[in-house]
Amino acid sequence: MAGLFQVLKGSADGTFKKAAELKGTDGEPLIIPIKDEKEQVQNICTRPTAVDWDGDGKLDLVVGNFAGSFYLFHGEGKGQFAPKPEVLMADAGPLQIKGVHSDPFVVDIDGDGDLDIVSGSSNGGVQWAENTAGKGKKPELKQFVALIAPSADVPYGQPVQEDNIKGPSNSTRVWVDDVNGDGKLDILLGDNVTLVSPAKGLSLAEFKKKSDEWQKEFEQATRINAADKEAAEKASKRINELYAARQKFVSEDRTGFIWLYLAR
Fold first, then answer.
1. How many CB atoms lie within 10 A of CB 187?
2. DSSP H/E element including 238
3. Which parts of the chain register pLDDT below 50?
4. Which of 52, 68, 87, 255 is deepest in the core (most CB within 10 A)?
């Protein structure tokens, strides 16, 4: 959450040293700068990938964040980076995924010789920002489009089991590689899903009845005037009570799956 970058340096014997903060050439820890706390979503939940983005032979850092935007820390060689990053742009505006939690994976996904960016998202699926510059040229990105569309959401509170999950859920993370060795780039996609079933001893019909009743009470508790402090406090207390009561008729297992998309 803090937004700092850490590296575990390897040793010749296959072990790793203790994690250490990456620092800029000014000696200070690398972090995306913000003007005030309102912009903090730009420098938390950062996800870096090291790649020679500008083709100068030095590793740079392409970084995602909670806000869904992207930054570039220019590499200065020997593990050093410029202290201040630049915002990655596309189509004359900041590069931005649909959703939040940008998750950059830099790869020539379309095989035209230049580096594109693919990303997961809080919305699910996989998004692709095409680089149109051409091989050996400074990247010129287009805004993200869907490479793999998100799956349909299951309504909140409805039973969800492994056998009725047909595709990736939300909060996706992506990896691209030739998994089956056919010379084509495949996509591995991780997600976040909550399996939902009736509590032990409860029939599906009983579960549905209790869930519908709970949902109505929850919606009523959230219809408040936020300016009325006393009402807001009562509503907050009631919402906490409802969530505690929900555990009596719902069994939840928060987990995730890995999906493989083989290239044709």
1. 21
2. helix 229-246
3. none
4. 68
Classify residue 99 by its DSSP letter: S
CA dist., res. 21 & res. 7, Å (int) = 6
pTM for this prediction? 0.85
Taking only the tens place, the pLDDT of each residue in 13-23 is 999 999 999 99
Residue of 105, 143, 151 whose CA lies nearest to 124: 151
8 A C-beta contact, residue 115 and residue 108: yes
Cα pseudo-dihedral 68, 86, 145, 189, rounded to 10? -60
CA-wise closest residue to 97 among 146, 31, 50, 38 = 146
Tokens of 12: 């010749």
Strands (E), the chain: 6-7, 20-21, 47-51, 60-64, 70-73, 75-77, 80-81, 86-87, 89-90, 93-94, 103-107, 116-120, 126-129, 145-148, 170-177, 186-198, 250-255, 258-261
- Planar angle of CA 61, 63, 69, nearest 5 degrees: 145
Please report the DSSP string for 205-219 in residue order: HHHHHHHHHHHHHHH
198/207 Cα distance (integer angstroms): 6
Residue whose token pair is 């379309």? 110
**What is the pLDDT at residue 164?**
76
Q: What is the C-alpha separation between 143 and 159, in angstroms, rounded?
A: 36
